[in-house]
Every structure is written in C-alpha cells, then in structure tokens.
C-alpha cells in the first residue's frame, strides 16, 4: 500500500444516513441542498462545527452567495439550526424530518415570497456586505432575515439603521439591532420618521451641550480677581477684650 492509499484510509469516512440519500426530495431538499448538507456532515466529522460559506464553497463548485442562499433556506425551514451557544450547526431538525416523514411543500421553499421581495432581500444583503467589506455569515443572514419577517422592519428602515452605524463607525449587527429596537419603542416605522427622530436627538444633544457651556461661562473662576473679597478688620487687641 503506497502513501496515497494510506492517507486515503487514514482520513476516515463520513456517515451519511441512507434515508437522507433515498428521501431527500420527499422532504423538500434539492440536489444542491443535499450537497451542502453532506458537506456539513463532513465538516462536523473533521471537528469544524460551524464552517463558513467560504469553506463550503471551496469544496464545491458553488459560489459563496449560492452557499449563503442555501444555508438560509435550510435555516428558515428548520433543516438545520444553531446550537444553544451558536457555535455549531445542529442537524437534528433534518433527522426529525427524515424519521417523521415530514414533507415540506416544494412551492413553499421557492414561492413563499414574490420575486420583488426576494430581490429586495438580496439587495439588502449586498448592501450590508458592501458596507462591512466582507461576506455575511449564515448567522448574520438569519438575523437580518428575522428583522424583516419576524420584527416586520421595512428594508428602508434597516438600511437607515445601517447608515447610522456606518456614520458611528460601529459595524456590528448588535448595535444596528439596538437602533431598530429603539425606533420600535418610539413607534418609528419609516425612513423619514427615523431621520426626523435622529435629527431631534442630535438637536437635543447639541442644546444640552450649549446650555452646559453657557453655565460654565457664567460660573466665576476661583482665581479671578474681578470680585472684591471682604476681609473683616479688627482693631489690635480687640479679641483680648472679648
């Protein structure tokens, strides 16, 4: 046995459920979805519990954008999920669908949104990637998707929050989410309302700063010689008489 053969057997095997290979179409997975799922099994076998889209793309002929789209679909329809600590992909949802025979309507995987909605969401992802200067992680894609679907934030409002984060030079989703939740608390629902709220906040802050400066100017300095200091005068020997 030569060295290549030894290396081949030393790398080990990846256990793929036979039922997955036999029934993946029945549970709503496409051929491309299956390849990504198999790669997730393989990475897990190698100890890489949360592979990036870049890593998965390097092992397939899919672009990173395609990998992200597939991962988003798998997450959305609960084939996979994130572990409790968000440090690994959990494939138990896939197993449950295979064991329980849960069938997903193929139409719901591709036609649950209008083409315009799909295009809007894709452009939103691209905007974030351009501002962040990198590809978004699957977890970040899921977060942005939940802002739109679960929290019902409009794409324009999300972009406005992103722009505010860019201006503050704080490029992370947690900061952007705080902005969005603050607007939600203040019943801000449109881009125009958000810009007005932001302007009002800046004016309030500027006003407070101006008042503080004025108060500081009015406060006399302890070292100033402009005030007359009165010193009580006593005659010599007066204290003795007291």
UniProtKB/TrEMBL annotation:
What organism is listed for this UniProt entry? Oenococcus oeni (Leuconostoc oenos)
Write out the similarity annotation.
Belongs to the DnaB/DnaD family.
| UniProt cross-references to Pfam families, sorted A to Z | DnaB_2, DnaD_N
**DnaD N-terminal domain residues:** 16-99
Q: Which residues form the DnaB/C C-terminal domain?
A: 125-197
Chain segments carrying region Disordered: 195-242
Q: Which residues form a coiled coil?
A: none
Q: What is this protein called?
A: DNA replication protein DnaD
